[in-house]
Structure formats: C-alpha cells, structure tokens
What does this fold into?
Amino acid sequence: MLTGLDRQARIRMLEMLTQAPGVPGFEMAVADVMSDWIGDIAQPEYDGLGSVIFELPGSSDGPRIMLAGHMDEVGFMVGRITPEGFIKFQPLGGWWDQVILGHRVVVKAAGGDHVGIIGSKPPHILEPKERDKVVKAKDMFIDVGARDEEDARENMGIRVGDPIVPDSPFARIGDGDLLLSKAWDDRVGCGLIVDLFHRLADGDFPGTLVGVGTAQEEIGLRGAQTSVDMVAPDVGIALEVSIAGDVPGGDKDRASDTLRGGPSLLVFDRSMVPNLPFRDLVIERAAAADIPLQTSLMGGGSTDAGKIHLHAGGVPSVVLGVPTRYIHAQAGIIALEDYEHTLDLLTEIIRALDAEVVSGFTR
It folds into this structure.
C-alpha cells in the first residue's frame, strides 16, 4: 500500500516551496523548506554552491539513484540604483521581455523586503513608432517608492547584487485541481523529491535514493555539475516542468504536452539524448501501471540531466516533466492530477531500478 503525504499536506508543501524566494545564487530559503519536510527522513548535506542533498538507503545493495530538481527560479538582481531612487536590474535566467513589464516584485535587501513594480516610460508620451515595439528589459526599472538613491541605499538597505523575486501568490483555480503560482520551474521537481521521500521512507526499494535540490540551474546547470560529483550516481532522473502547449496559438510540433494529459518523458533536448533502455523502462512501467504518459522534445532548452549524464564515465539518465503553462514568467499553472501521476510513475520506476536492471542500461 502506497503511503506518504495526503493531498492536503501535498498542496501545503507545494505552496511553501513555490512561495519561497530563490533566484539563482540565492536558493537557501528553498533548501530550508525541503529540509523542513524531509529532515525527519534524511539529513541534508550541501555542496559548495548551495545544492541540498538527501540520501535514503533502500532494502538492498544496488544502484545510487540521483533525483534532481532545481531550486532556483527566474528572477532579477539589483544592477544599479539611479540618483532618483529607481532600480535598474539584471535578469537572472531566461526572460522574455514582453512578460516582465508591469508586474510586482520583491527586492530582498539587507534592510528587509521591499515591494516594487517594474515600470517603463509611460505609453502616453511615446512616439507613435515606439508604441508598436516591445519594451526591452534594459529600458525598464523597478519603483520601490524610494525618495532618491540615498534613501534606497541608506534607509531601505538596498545594495547592488541584491536578489529580486517575482511577487505572485499561490492559488487553486478552475475546479481546484489547477494550481497557479510562481516558480513551478522547478519547485515542482523539488516537491516530487519531498513527496517521494515520504512515500518511500520505509526503504521498500532497491539501492540508494539520493534527492538533490540543485542550485543555479537557470544560469548554466551549475548546481547539477557540482552535486553530481558528491553523489556519484549510477543512474539519474531530472524532475522538471514540461512545456504545455494547450493554449490559443499553441504549436503541437514544438509543445505537444497538455494539462491533465499525464507526466511527460523528454526524448530530446539541447543538452541530452536520454539513455534508450532507461527511456523504454519508463514507457513500460507507465503502461503496466496504467499511468498516462506524454512524450516531448525541447530544441531550445536543457535540464540538469545534461550535466548528470556526463559525470565520470557517463550516467544513464532520463527527464520526467509535469506539464506547465507559462514557464519563465511571473506565474504558471499545473494540474494536480499530472503531478500525482508523475509521483506514481516515479515510484514505479524507483522500485524497478535494481542492480541488474541498471547494469542493462549500458553495454
């Protein structure tokens, strides 16, 4: 009988994870949430970049299985404070300029949190030819209500290099099964690690399960590269979002996944082709357990598996994703049923990964 978090606890855990601030290089609050939920099952360790590592032994000797979910979200950093007290910012991660303008953010300063709004030159004073152009991030600024530069620096405690996080609350929408929040990319992966550790806390699986909340994925898969050296896995699974294309104007050739369609198996991205026997095992376990499974390709992105599978002599790896609308924006949407189907599939996979099976992934 499967155990673990009940649905109410799961939603509370996901809310805490998504609402924690954690732009690249500033993920500690997210690591703390993961530790709060997993600490009674496995004690956290850290690599030198701030990735958090949890290890859970199974019922027998076997492979070391690395699960990676990156803790960082797309956000910003204070780049400069103007004499008038406005903040010019550096984007952290891949932002589309068109979705940045007009949104609330929180500047995480030494003097405390400061809510602000991303602004630009008012449209009423733009030349006609300017109105048809997308405003570039370099021409935007953040208004935190400072009187001037001195007020921002001395009284508000804002410094160059301070992290800036989107301000986007958690909500259940539609029939309650859709969850709206910031940072699904990739707190959904962190949540799956938490959930799986609760479900498998009794050690009823072969090998050793190592869950890693990685740092700085959005700026170069950096935490995966450092943490995989500490974990030294035999097999790797990156837990991610997938791009849901079930919106007006969606392109099935570029984004075929849909909400409520089940977890997605990534069969190609810019950094990795999955291990084929491992890929086939995922497909077979989903079919045997009657779990819906989608497949996707991502020509313009990469995941932590891109670093994990290149470790040492090579680590057979796959990527599982939860379909998500509006990634790399202030808020996105997932379906709780997709998340739970992904958790079920992940459980099936982990229980199938004994030493003999993993040895068959390579020649």
Notes: The radius of gyration is 21 Å. Residues 108 and 323 are 30 Å apart (CA to CA).
